[in-house]
Amino acid sequence: MSIVSVQPRRKSRRDWTPALLLSPAFLVLIFVVLVPLLFSLYTSFTNYRLIRPDSLYEWIGLRNYQRIFTDSKFWAAFGRTIIFLTLALNLEFIFGLGIALLINKITWGQRTLRTIMMFPMMFSPILVGYQFKFIFNDNIGLLNNALQSLGIGDGAIAWLVDKPLGMFTIIFAEVWMSTSVFAILLLAGLFAMPRDPLEAAKVDGCNSWQVFRHITLPFLMPFAFIAMTIRSLDVARAYDIVDVMTGGGPANRTELLWTMIARVGYDNSRMGQANAMAYVSILLSIAFTYYFFTKLIAARKYMGGAE
Amino acid sequence: MASKTKKQIGKVANWILTFVLMLVIGLPGLWVVLTAFRPNREILAKPAIWIPEKLSLDNFGKIFGYGVDQIAIPVPSYFANSLIISLTSTAIALLIGMSGGYAFARFRFKRKNGYFLALMLSRTVPGIALSLPIFMVWSRLGLIDTKMGMIIIYVALNIPFTIWLIDGFFRQIPKEMSEAAQVDGCTRWQAFWKIEFPLAKSGVASAGIFAFLTSWNEYALASQLTRSTDSKTLPVGLMDFTAQFTIDWAGMSAMAVIIIVPALILTFLVQKHLIAGLTFGGVKG
C-alpha cells in the first residue's frame, strides 16, 4: 500500500487489492445464494417432502423433471408467465417512452411531474397488489362503483375472476408499477441528448418522424436496455402482486410459474418437485437478464463509452 | 395562422394527456389513503358514497391498539421488525457495496465484466425460488423466524444493485484527485476516506436508501421465512387482514399508509441522485 501504489506497478506482481475488496460481497452471495441453490439442485433429484424429513435422501433421478415436463398445468403456467413478461415489458417500454417524450416537451411544472412519475416505484409490490385488488373488487371497488354511478352497464364486472380480465388486471398492476423505471431512464436519456444532430437533420429536411426514428430512438436504446436489465433483475416480484390479488386463482386462471412453485412447495409440501420448477424459473430469469445485459454491452460499445 | 392553431391544439392535447396520465398514476394510491381515514361502514356502502362524510384517525388507532375496537394484529412489533431488519441490512450492504463498488470503479482486473455479470445474475434468482432452499438451509441453522436470518438474506439481495450504483458514483470522481493526495503522503486508505468518500457521499446515501426500500418492501422471501412477531415484517403483516372470505379494507388501508409513508419520504430525498447513478453507471461503464 502507501505511496508505492502510485508508482507504475510492475506487471509481474499481481495486485490482490480488488480481490480483497470484492471478497465480502462474493462470500455473502455464496452463502445466501450459491450454496442454497446447489442444495436445491440436489433436492430436485429427490422425493423430498416437508412432512417426511427422511425423504431428503430418496434419490429419484430425473423423475421430478419428467413429472413437471409432462404436466399440462405446468406448461400452462409457463406459457402464461412468458406471455405475461412479454406483454408487460413491451407495454412498459412503449408507455415509458410515451411518458418520457410527453414530459420532455412540458416546461412548466416538469419537476413536479417527474416526482409524481416516480410514485409507483416506491410502492411495495404487495401494496400495488392490494391497491388494485381494492380498486378492481367486484362489489365495493372504485372502478365498478364508478361504472354504476355513471350508469354504464350493470357494473358488477368480476375483474379479478373473469377469464381474460383476471390476467388483464394483473398485467395492468404490473405495468402500473414498473413503467416509471422506463420513463425515468428514457427521460434521462432525452436530457442527455446532444442538440446538434437533431438540428442538422432538420436542416437536411427530415420530418419529425424520421428524426425520431433515426436519431432519437437509437440514442435512447442504451437507456432502454438499462431499464430492461434493471427490470429483468427483479422480474419475479410480480409474484407478490399475483399472490395478493388472486393467489393464482380462480381455477389457475392467473397461475404463473412463481405462484405454482409456492403452491407445490409450501401448500402441498412437495419440496423436491417445487425445486425442479424453481430451477426452470431461475433459468428463465437468467436468460432474460443475460439477453438484456449483452444488448446493453453492445449498445455501450455503439455509444463509444466502453472500456 | 393555421400552423399556430395546430401548435396550440397540440399543446392542449399534451396537457390533457399529461393530466390523464397523472390521474392513472396518482389516483389508486390516493384512493387507498382516503380509505384509510374512512370507517368500514362507509367503504362498504351500496350505492357508493363518493364524498366522505366522516374522516378520522380511528383506523390507525385501531391497528396500533388504541380505542374501543382494537384488533388483534400486532402492528407495532411488525413495524419495529421491519425497521430493525431494513436498517441493519442496509448498513451492512452499504459497507460491502462500497468496498465492491470501489474495486470495480478503480481497478483493472481480469474478467471484470464476468464478475459483474455474476453479481447481477445472483440477483435475478426469483425470491420465491430462492426461498425454498433457504427455507431448508435456514431451518437446519435455526435461522427461520429470526431477524438475523432475514438480515443476512437482505444483505445478499442488496449487494449487486448497491455495487452497481456505487461503482457509477465512484467513476464520476476523477482518479487524479486521490492520486494527488497519495503523492502528498496519504495512504490509499486515507485518500479514500478524505477525498473520494466525501465526494461520493450523496451517491452512497442514495444507494443506501434504495437498499432500505428493497428490504422494507420485500415480500416473497419474508412471507415464507417469518412466522411470528419475532421477525414478521410489515408487508407480511398486511396479509393478516385477509381472512378466508372477508377483508378488513379500512385496517388494511391504514397499514398500507404506514408502509408507504417512510418509503415516500425517502424516495423524495433520493430521486435526483438515483437517476444520475443508474444512467452514468450503465451507459458509460
Blueprint (SSEs and pairs):
The complex is a heterodimer of chains A (about 300) and B (about 280).
Chain A: H1 17-43, H2 63-69, H3 72-105, H4 110-117, H5 125-135, H6 142-150, H7 163-192, H8 196-203, H9 208-233, H10 238-245, H11 257-267, H12 271-303
Helix pairs in contact in A: 2-12, 3-7, 5-7, 5-10, 7-9, 8-9, 9-12, 11-12
Chain B: H1 2-36, H2 40-43, H3 58-63, H4 75-106, H5 112-124, H6 127-141, H7 147-171, H8 175-183, H9 188-217, H10 220-225, H11 234-238, H12 249-283
Helix pairs in contact in B: 1-12, 4-7, 4-9, 5-7, 7-9, 7-12, 8-9, 9-12
Name the features.
heterodimer, A: 307 residues, mainly alpha, MetI-like fold, B: 285 residues, globular
Q: What do these coordinates show?
A:
The complex is a heterodimer of chains A (307) and B (285). Chain A is an all-alpha fold and 307 residues long. Chain A has a single domain, classed as Orthogonal Bundle (MetI-like fold). Chain A has helices spanning 17-43, 63-69, 72-105, 110-117, 125-135, 142-150, 163-192, 196-203, 208-233, 238-245, 257-267, 271-303. In chain A, helix 5 (125-135) packs parallel to helix 10. Chain A is globular. Residues 1-5 of chain A have low confidence and may be disordered. With 285 residues, chain B is mainly α. The relative contact order of chain B is 0.13. In chain B, helix 1 (2-36) packs across helix 12, helix 8 packs antiparallel against helix 9 (188-217) and helix 9 packs antiparallel against helix 12 (249-283). Helices cover 75% and strands 0% of the residues of chain B. At the A-B interface, helix 1, helix 3, helix 4, helix 5 and helix 6 of A face helix 1, helix 4, helix 5, helix 6 and helix 7 of B.
